[in-house]
């Protein structure tokens, strides 16, 4: 029996509702497989925890996370209790940094039964690989003078190490998908970092002769996500460009309640973290109507990451069929409650086996 240890952080708001429900699905999958068992180490780290202890996580928190195979997170943030910058930096961003989760990935797919705002969504299925540690989001720079003479300088930082590992990750991923990588660039306007990015993209591409490559300027790429999203497979982007593209990806899918994300540690030294794109949704807490699909799809990404791809595929099949049959929460135009969606998925999974 393979035992996998998961750090579970439900966090705030609807995180506390969708995380426990989705763990039932993970247990069902483990039973179906028969050879794997999930052991959960659940942490109460949240804004309520902060009010009691003055910190978002205890001193030994990070060490405890390091001892597990993956981190499964709900959502963090309750601005009525704790300012967002305190809760996010004290937990989410701290984990991303200290667990060296240098790449962020977010898939987007057309799902039958989810109303995409696109007139012609055409069955798209792509994944954005975003550099998650440097680039345009750097602390290098400063401000001097004041008034009319004031100057602000913000430096983007592109190291070969981080650029190359991000691009290589995208190529590796493309080998397991349809074999196509699109690079987001802007070398016509940004004349140092983006030509460098393009150069590394070309160099790494030489190691993957069977992969089809293309570079698109970020502005055109944004337009293409709307006009022809089905033409993309893997898209690799810098921190800022990836940030913009992933929100756009979630938007064309049709609901923030279904979008998943993963923060990947690529050297295997520390665990990766899996979380939905949505936040704690304070406006719908306690009503049982939170959509659990974003959390579940994140769980699917975690299963794939842990080498349990077959279980991941099974879960995705059950998710799609459930939505297709109209078993969906209000944000998707349905009437089902969180637990009803989960029960339906569990029934399906059990029937497959
Ligand atoms: P939000 O994503 O929590 O909510 C935005 C809107 O989408 C709300 O109307 C909400 O009801 C709806 N929504 C979100 N997830 C849903 C789901 N699963 N099912 C049904 N409806 C859903 O974003 P908001 O309101 O800006 O932020 C609330 C708190 O969450 C803040 O403290 C914010 O900082 C935090 N946050 C945390 C994130 C994280 O932990 N990664 C990401 C985004 C926000
Ligand atoms: Mg964003």
From TrEMBL:
Q: Which EC numbers characterise this protein's activity in its record? A: 1.1.1.83
Q: Which family does it belong to?
A: Belongs to the isocitrate and isopropylmalate dehydrogenases family.
Q: What keywords would UniProt list here?
A: Manganese, Metal-binding, NAD, Oxidoreductase
Report the residue ranges that make up the Isopropylmalate dehydrogenase-like domain in this protein. 5-345
Its catalytic activity?
(R)-malate + NAD(+) = pyruvate + CO2 + NADH
Its cofactor is:
Mg(2+); Mn(2+)
Gene3D superfamilies for this protein? Isopropylmalate Dehydrogenase
Statement: the UniProt record of this protein carries the keyword Oxidoreductase: yes
Care to name a GO molecular-function term for this sequence?
Answer: tartrate dehydrogenase activity
Enumerate the SUPFAM superfamilies for this protein: Isocitrate/Isopropylmalate dehydrogenase-like
In the UniProt record, does the keyword NAD occur?
Answer: yes
Q: Name one Pfam family in it.
A: Iso_dh
Q: Which InterPro entries match?
A: ICDH/IPMDH, IsoCit/isopropylmalate_DH_CS, IsoPropMal-DH-like_dom, TTC_DH
Record's superkingdom?
Bacteria
What is the protein name for this chain?
Answer: D-malate dehydrogenase (decarboxylating)
